[in-house]
Amino acid sequence: MKKITNRGRLLTSTMLVGSMAAALIAGSAAAADDDLQEIVVTGSRIKQAANLTSDSPLTTVTEKEMKLQGTTNVETMLNRLPGVTADQTQGVSNGASGTATINLRNLGASRTLVLIDGRRMVGGDPSYPYTDVNFIPAALVDSIDVVTGGASAVYGSDAIAGVVNFKMKRDFEGVKVDYQLSAAQHDNNNKEAQTALKSFGVSIPGSQFDGFVRDSSFIIGANAPDNRGNVTAYATYRWTEPVKQSSRDWSACSISVSGDDNDTHVCQGSSNNIYGRFRTNGSGTGYSLNPDGSSSFVKYNSSLAYNYGPYNYLQRQDERYTGGAFAHYEISPAFDVYTDFMFMTDHTRAQIAPSAIFNSALYSINCDNPLMSSSEATALCGSNAGSSSASWTGTIGLRFSGSGKERYDDIRHTDYRYVIGTKGDLGGGWSYDISAQHSEAIYTEHYENDVSISKVQKALDVVSVNGVAECASYVNGTDTSCVPLNIFSLNGISDAAWNYIKTTSYKEGTVTQDVVSSSVTGDFGQFGAQSPLAKNPVAIAFGTEYRKEGLNLKVDEENASGDLAGSGGATQNSSGSYDVKELFGELRIPLVEGREWVKELSLDAGYRWSDYSSSGKVDSWKTSLTYAPVSDFSFRGGYNRAVRAPSILELYSTQTVGLTSASDPCAGSSPSATLAQCARTGVTSAQYGSIAECTSSQCNVLSGGNTALKPETADTWTIGTVITPTFLRNFSATIDYFDIRVTDLISTLSASSILNQCINTGDSYYCSLIHRASNGSLALTGGYIIDTEMNTGYLNEQGVDFGINYLLDLEDLNVENKGSVLFSFNGTWLANYLVQPQPGESAYNCKGLFGVTCGQPTPMWRHNFRVTWQTPWNVDLSGNWRYISGVKLDQNTSNAVLSGDYDKADGRINSYSYFDIAMSATVYDHYTVRFGVNNLFDKDPPILDSNVYGIAGTSVYGNGNTFAGVYDTLGRTFFLGVTADF
User: What are the distances in angstroms from CA 631 to CA 32, 599, 727, 732, 736?
Assistant: First the structure.
């Protein structure tokens, strides 16, 4: 027993489900001790004995598990939990916010509330205002609690899916220094990818060793001489090396589908290519420069497409510093003053392919342009070739290739957080906590090597002056810096012309949060408020909170005017704020305790009243019941009414036309939709078969805020059991069913869903949201899909969480002096993921699907299973099995809302198993060395069509022909770390 108890500390350092760690370690003897220390369990403000089980499903991951995974960025570790779906990560390049966000239950980052020691965090970015966990120094994290199923009654708005609470190291004494180096190794031996690359003329890279990440941290802490106070300070540094898509065979080109039933993956680039694509009025096949270098045109064909894939990052370059301190001093038991200061500066760069004269705008070229050959002028202008009074109008898809022309998105975030407060003992079992906090995220972004649409137009309007080609704007004096742009011969664009049209754009902004809160906790034991059948009195927590949220985004003229060719449209200034006044309270009522067949029966309830300056008054509440007939098992169940008020961006962001990942089924020479179907979207018979495709599967969309939004609400039911059998020492298991239904969902419909609904059903509401340009295009000026924020239908998710932990002493198997083995299992089974687009419509089920409408994979089953041998030689050996069940493509289903073009090649993502190993050893008492390999067998991620949103397009979730974040993208990853602790 002694051996297990001493070594059992690792049990609290692995993934634990249900807040059972203390009970498992201490055993039944501790459970009977009335003097157990009281703690605050995430999900309630009422203090409770440390061995009690949470009344809500709760997963705890502590420092040891993070060390075994080799993760020094917390979003990677959390994204591996079965109940978490990847959101913004370091694997996003095109469309990156530069932040790392948490998406609990796949309900969205906006519905996941993130806390530090029970206090909420500020939004991380004015363009993507959800909590940035890059701010969290991993070295300071003692544990992470994940509470699912709604917690608005306890913590307020945004806790629809639940709460992620980072518990930090406090009262640290001594010095701790840590350094870790990690890198990836990948063997490029994917036959499918290599076949596609060879046919596209792309060289195949060999085995790669890259993606270095260097992390270092320093922690120092000291107690006051009388042990009544402590100061803990920290500093960390992290450097991440970029990894290009060209380094992996499965991402070295942009993958699309071809063949009968779209049954083959092929490399397919962009029609914005180095040869150009000139289409009159944006219609037809168009012309391209002759690849032989002669000043002539050829008909455009797919062999001239541009491979933009290799330039994009699979892992962004990133440099991050964090620092801060936690301090407190107990002047008296009733007056314990505390303060926190936390700081982060993060600088990341995302790289994508060079910009272009994209086919999303109409340009005019005078027919007497001296840079055109006579054959080119004839091809474009016909009989008007050479005429000074005539011009050609159309789209031009020309890529600016060459070293140094790649686009860079340079993003910086500087975050601060201050907390000051006091807490103390009021006597008689009562205590209080009063605090104020200010948080601020400062954002700057500059986008390099984009192209000015207006300057391109000026540089195309060229006339001959004494045999010298000059811009007309230079001649008439309206723009004396203009340089002619020669797009009529290969490599004809001069450095001077490039320097004239290239543009760097800027954005800056802040997100602020101010919170003042006070709470009182205690029990009514001294007043006799206690069930006659219970040992413990009624406990209560109540308080008040005031919170103000502010957002301010400023953009330069280039962004505001929509003059940037590669930005997809204008970005406008956004600003706004709201405040909320709240009252809250909780009750815990022990009904029966210590009776035969009723070891515990207790009732919990909570209520919060909120008054938003933006959305009015709302209520949230909770109630739950815990019943333990015997020590071996207990039951718990509860109901939560949660609310989420619309965010500042959802309310006030300016409505503008930009790009979204979508494909127009009515575009191209052979549309996939019929004329009758396309007519529903506004296509005429004359336009059918000649409409310009959306460039790189990115159509125009009108997006923005909506001041008429009302708060969304969620009703969550949970019921489960906790099993701790006395006959099986050090074993625990939890099973919890959850049912989360979000109504008045604040969301957009997605351009793809709008198109599919209109084409497949002819619904007048959806068809009215499609506005085609005069030539029928959804890619040119005047064509767009309306998809602003709105209160839509509902989202309903149901499933079951499973957790098992077992610590086996090998002596029980008659294996002497070999330590113990810890088994830890955590899994989630998804029963349904129902989405109703609009009230009154039928819901569709994304369970086990991915794709155009359902987005990233929603697997029916995910689990982690870790086995750790805790040897008696101060060495731990551990292995982990991560599993993701297979998913099918939504558009291949028979559901009218989901269905689309049949795609056999992308029809299914098979199940995925990843195996990780790790070792940790203590050397000379003060030093710990750890080594591990994640994705031991270098399993490739699934390869998917990169040109369709939801199947790994340029979105939050997709990058490099796969779902970055859901699946491992870098290959076999090694890590080596050393900790010195004094």
Answer: 11, 7, 11, 12, 18
